[in-house]
Amino acid sequence: MAEPSPVSNSPLVVTDGERNYTLFVLVLVFTSSHVDRQIMGILGQPIKEALAISDTQLGLLTGIMFAVFYATLGMPMAMWADRRNRRNLIAFSVFVWSFMTALCGAANTFSQLLLARIGVGVGEAGSNPPSHSMIADLYPPHKRATAMAIFGTGVNWGILLGFLIGGWINEWYGWRVAFVVVGLPGLLIAALVRFTVKEPARGYSEQLTERLPPPPFWSVVKFMAANPILRNIVAAGTLVAFAGYASVIWIPIYLVRIHGMGTGETGTYLALLIGIGGAIGIYIGGRISDHLAATRGLHWPAWVAAIVSVISIPFLYVAFFAETSNAALLAYVIPAALGTVYIASGFSIIQNQTPVEMRSVAAAINLFILNIVGLGIGPFSVGFFSDFFEPTYGVDSLRYALLSTLSVVALGSWYYFRAGIHLRRFENISMKVPVQNN
């Protein structure tokens, strides 16, 4: 059996200022990744018209081809992160995806743009798992849902900036300039990470002074597959992300195409709804999850994710079939605010259920499945079904393609509920185990 090794040569001391600053910078990183990832949503219709591509091809650009490289490379990078410096890996990743986003503006064909988007996915592969691991080292289990919620607001800030800046820059200067404008600031964020963030000691939040060496990849896979809590959490997050990513990419295209809104107007409204509303929603969701976990049991974060996902379903239905843009936007208020609440619950539960030495890889495995199915197949499936339904429903085919995602949300909610049941059983068993006094 492998002998424990020191967690770090650094002293186990982190000030509140250092902890909060590290989280702030990681939020900037996550924001940058989602600006560059989600800007395809607001620019989708002008790109479709400029390059004369189908909705299926647009789904490839926004979904599966990006996700395959992003998710697959995330695992070897996470294994590297569990063994080496996580901060440096994050800084390098930000540099790569920011450069490749700016390069998207030079694409003249579908193939060129597809290759550039694959480059963005390659860069983003090295960011999330080490970020999760660093946050888990800095914040104890009873505070992780809130910390992960704050980190998760990067999704909403990224959508806000991507939609707002991308929408108006497209109207003023064209979609090519929009890619350059949102890509270049990431190079500064990469430098900020590399030269101002400190690598935290592994296991600091649990006050560990030694840990086992990182296990082989397949040992982590077997550990997660054998844990019913992790199995259900991964399945739930994957299904909810399937509908969430599809909605974020295609809702702006739906508003532009069916309701005749401009990209600037669409980007502004969605920036407010998803960006600000969603950031408030995920933060409050994280605080509620931590409060319920502390007062009523650690299973409640999973049930919070289940409840908010179910609440969103009827509002999404109304939004997809609204007769006017105002009605569609009004119905989308609730789903926009609740759409990312599951992130804090799911990410924190995975880190809580995973030993220190495998946290980056566990996060990467979760993200691999979530992104292949959610980010990859979700947007692609909507594009595919939109083309499939077009001969029958015409321009309204996109409405029916979006409708197909609602059953997936319902199934994801069921898996969150099951994860909560397993967590409650685990808590009850733990309470019955007598404490051994040395």
Give a structural overview:
By secondary structure, the chain is an all-alpha fold. It has one domain: Up-down Bundle (Growth Hormone, Chain: A). Helix content is 80%, strand content 1%. It has 19 helices and two strands. It has helices at 16-51, 55-62, 64-81, 86-104, 110-124, 128-138, 141-173, 175-183, 185-196, 217-226, 228-259, 263-295, 300-320, 325-331, 333-338, 341-352, 359-393, 397-403, 406-432, and strands at 5-6, 210-211. The protein has a two-stranded antiparallel sheet. Helix 3 (64-81) runs parallel beside helix 5 (110-124). The chain is globular. The two termini are 23 Å apart.
Would you report the number of β strands? Answer: 2
Count of spatially separate domains: 1
Unreliable segments (pLDDT under 50, ≥5 consecutive)? 1-11, 433-438
Count of discrete alpha- or pi-helical segments spanning 4 or more residues:
19
Architecture, according to CATH?
A: Up-down Bundle
The largest sheet has its strands arranged as 1-2
Strand content: under 5%
Sketch the topology as an H/E string, one letter per element.
EHHHHHHHHHEHHHHHHHHHH
Annotated CATH homologous superfamily: MFS general substrate transporter like domains
State the separation between the terminal residues, measured CA to CA.
23 Å
Give the integer mean of the pLDDT values.
84
Which value, in Å, is the CA radius of gyration? 21 Å
CATH topology: Growth Hormone, Chain: A
